[in-house]
Amino acid sequence: MENYFQEMITLLGFTVIKSEHEIDAIHNGLIHIHAVWSGPAIMRTKEIFELLKNLNLRESINLYYLDNDLIKTLKYIKLLNNHGYGETIIIKDGQIIYSTKFGKPLNELIDYIGKTK
């Protein structure tokens, strides 16, 4: 499974976030938060990867991949409102304009991706 995720991260052109503090420098783009220990996150990450692959967005939006276990500071826990379900966040002009919640349909995400352009 880990090989699949690494291949998709490369194929889709994700930048891997190595520290929660890097989040502050992201002004536009999509952040996908993955928890390797969570079944729902694994399922959602696969869905997100397939969606992004089908939309072919590599040139039109900055994609960031964040390991849930890197989020340790209360500031980022509150900011990202993540729970280990494979959340995805859209940032425009330094503000979060969309955040998936567990079970939220992916078509809403597509609408917000279009608003980042």
Please provide a written account of the structure.
With 117 residues, this protein is α/β, with parallel strands linked by helices. The protein is 38% helix and 21% strand. The chain has a five-stranded mixed β-sheet, with helices on one face. Helix 1 packs parallel to helix 2. The termini are far apart.
The major pleated sheet works out as:
5 strands, mixed
The domain tally reads 1
Uncertain runs are none
Q: State the total count of DSSP E strands.
A: 5
CATH fold name: Glutaredoxin
Summarize the SSE layout with pairings.
Blueprint: H1 2-12, E1 15-17, E2 29-34, H2 39-55, E3 63-67, H3 74-80, E4 88-92, E5 95-99, H4 106-114
Keywords, separated by commas or semicolons:
5-stranded mixed beta sheet; alpha/beta; 38% helix; globular; 21% strand; 4 helices; 117 residues; 5 strands; Glutaredoxin
Q: Quick gist of this model?
A:
The chain is 38% helix and 21% strand. The chain contains four helices and five strands. The chain is globular.
